[in-house]
What does this fold into?
Amino acid sequence: MKDNVKSWVIPLWIISTGVIIVFLIVAKRLLIPLVIAIAIWYLIESLSRALQRIRFRKKNHFRLPRWLTLIISSFSIIGALVLVIKILLENFKTMAQSIPKYEDKLDQVVEYITQFFELEEATGYMDLIQKVDIAGAVGPVFDTVTNLLASLILIIIYVIFLILERNVLKVKIRKLMRTEGSYKNFLQVLGQINESIRTYISVKIFTSFLTGFLSYIVMELFGLDFAILWAFIIFALNFIPSIGSITATSLPLLFSLVQFGSFGTFFLLMIFIVGVQILVGNYIDPRMMGSRLNISPLVILVSLVAWGSIWGFAGMIFSVPIMAVLIIIFAQFRSTKFIAILLSADGSLDVKKLGGKKEEVT
It folds into this structure.
């Protein structure tokens, strides 16, 4: 009987995984706004906690009430999100109107490169460049931002319900648990998941914003057109491990080559922008993040490809926190603990168990 049960385990895992993947793909129009709303909710919670720690009177230690900090945090973050999307749409519109000018400059750059390197069949390269539809390439990016704006209402609704549900969630969980001990243990595991996600989102937003802001200053000093748009692209792509920072720096650098038509300016701008990436990515980010997520670099790369295939750009951004949550969940059960060990950075697990104690596996 036991052998029959074991023989069904692997097929059940395969079928379950397939069903989950199909569900994630089919329902992504509803799930992606929900995941974005959860990320915004974590930001609101972090800002609300920070505001509650502020003391306005030395003697009475007056602090802002919880409901007021939530309102301030919600309006601040959602307002900032709407403002950013509005600025991006205006920049995309301006860029679309300027495309013919940059197409002419692109032809000049290609002609200069073919002559400088004495490339044969330069005419063929020119014909290939002329066939490239820049407007068609910018179009999908514009559509992505437009779709985000269209989903903003749904995201805001999700955020509102998440804030409202927070107060009754603990009550619901308590009624689901049989004993007080089980309830407290579950809250400990949930707290570790919250801490991992909150740490990742907070640190990543700060470091990505710092990278984008410093890059914006550099690009403005060089006089690069659409500097604020390139800065936002750098900010967004820095959430994608490894390839995100490479792509983020390549786009404004290639555009500078088209705008200025000078390799000297291109290389000088590259030194500064890549320097910002190295400073923040190799020094500031690791010091703030530490090794709290405990995810293997290979797993990060594979999850980046997998979630990118399922949810596209949004999946790439959220691949790391999703894997961090999965490691914590898999570590709770004996049958899935081996998966958590394989996904971890060094094979060790330092997670809170539903039994109430931290378990360290080496």
Remarks:
- Strands lie at 349-352, 358-361.
